[in-house]
Amino acid sequence: QVQLVESGGGLVQPGGSLRLSCTTSGFTFSRYGMNWYRQAPGKEREFVATITSIPGITNYADSVRGRFTVSRDNAKNTMYLQMNSLKPDDTGVYFCNVYLGRDPTWGQGTQVTVSS
Fold first, then answer.
1. How many CB atoms lie within 10 A of CB 26?
2. 68 — phi, psi (to 5°)?
3. Distance from C-alpha of 70 to C-alpha of 103, rounded to nearest angstrom
């Protein structure tokens, strides 16, 4: 059974940092690209970052480029999102996903709140 579990969210002040994790099981993690998305209250889910399988090429939404870094540890079947210089607009539920077929498999999400 494929599972994706996000963790690491929380409440942080503007300018602060958080590191999210997406721990996976049930598939060969190293063979697949992985993605981060987020959904703010009242808004549609939006793309945040992606990382390919080996060699781990990354890409980011313009709104987070230069502040967020996506990485992966294939030995731990885990993807990370290091988030620095956080802004109130970064508030939302952060999800990871993987395309094992036509449709993505999603985790349950982790809440990130940026507020003073």
1. 12
2. -110, 150
3. 22
- Three-state secondary structure call for residue 13: coil
Residues 33-78 have pLDDT tens digits of 999 999 999 999 999 999 999 888 999 999 999 999 999 999 999 9
Q: Look at residue 27 in the predicted model and tell me its pLDDT.
A: 97
What is the C-alpha to C-alpha distance for residues 97 and 99, in angstroms, rounded to an integer? 7
Residues sharing a CB contact under 8 Å with residue 101, sequence separation 6 or more, in sequence order: none
Quick one: 2 exposed, middle or buried, by C-beta within 10 A (0-12, 13-18, 19+)?
A: exposed
Inform me whether the pLDDT recorded for 88 exceeds 90: yes
Four-point Cα dihedral 33, 38, 43, 44, nearest 10: 10
